[in-house]
From TrEMBL:
Record organism: Candidatus Gottesmanbacteria bacterium GW2011_GWC2_39_8
Membrane-crossing residue ranges in chain numbering: 7-23, 29-50, 62-79, 94-118, 130-147, 184-204, 239-259, 279-302, 314-331, 373-389, 396-413
Keyword vocabulary terms for this entry: Membrane, Transmembrane, Transmembrane helix
Recorded superkingdom: Bacteria
Record's protein name: Glycosyltransferase RgtA/B/C/D-like domain-containing protein
Amino acid sequence: MKPEKTFILLLIYFVILNGYIYSTGTYFLNGFLLLITGLISLFLFSSGIKIPGKIIGVNPDLFAKIILVLSIGLTIILLDTTTILEPGLTRLSYFFFVFLNIFKFVLFIALILSLTYLGEKSRIKSRFKYLLLISLFLSIAIILMSPNPYIDTFVGIKEGVLMLFRGINPYANKIDNIPLSPSYSSYFSYWPSVLLFNAPFVFLSGDPRFTSIVANMITAIVMHKILKKNSSGGSFSEILPLIYLFNPVSFLIIWKSWIDPLAICLFTLFVYFLLSNRRFISLIFLALATMTRQNLFLVWPLVWKFLPFKKRNIISLILPFLILMLPFYFWNPADFINNGILRYAAHFAPRYDSLSLNTFVHSFSSQDLDKRVYFGILSLIYGIVFVKMKRSLTGLILSSTVILFAVFLLGYFA
């Protein structure tokens, strides 16, 4: 990709970043406007808007380094103001504030290390490895700071896995004492892949959040390998994985036990094996990612536009579904369909605290966004992106990003 295009993508990312980090996803008008700006810019970029052949002074490598430094700095500043200190949810450990001060100090070390990237040369040859280890340490520290948070996702995933260990169908039995939110039910309502990937960590540690930690590390390392192989030298292959790890809300995502790191990891492995021309394995990872985040079904038509529609490719996508889902289906068909498959089709009250178009509309009119309008806008965006998508891996990733971003931002629960 040309430096000008890389620079613009980084700029769009920085706009989007500033749209949600200050409220950690809770609605505020300025943040929503920044996110809409980011979505429109990304949509226009993916649709093939002409970029000037040369922009004077563009240095995407330097800009990426600045974003990394700012991300770590913002994490330090925002640490005390995020919901990591929210009363009633955190269930603080006895040494919480000791861990918090250590957390800040280690982040400060990470900030110093990130600043060394701004120079042309550095004597710290292993700074990338040091920053990976710091991210790993901080992620584990988050769990130690709050070992048993009262959060729907954490309780739901942990109890679902424990039910499975006891031979109880997690789709057929209610989870006791789960803090219900408008987008969560009292049953285990994720697909079996979430059980599969969280089971080892719940068994070993009793905490599903270690799944996210391992997933983030794998994502960063695989990103590094991809970029190192396909970039023209420099430190870009180190900076982008670090930007991902040190996103100001990445530790919050781990704390809340959201499944996004797992889905991103599986999708990254899909890209990695696709680049290695190992399509069968790559599509298995796409299937696993889709079972983790069902919105990824929207990516499938884009994939078929990029890949040949062959029997072998279809089998590699369908096989993981059959292996993981059929046992739970035959265990109790009705409960699996109702509490697992149809969960997203069920009616949940919209989240009026979410950074979404519906919240924006509701804040002015006290009315929800008409679903026909939502699906109409989304269909229009999807159609244009599909038609304009370039038959390349970069085009596939960019188009997928636009679609998934639009689904969340224009919806009711983002």
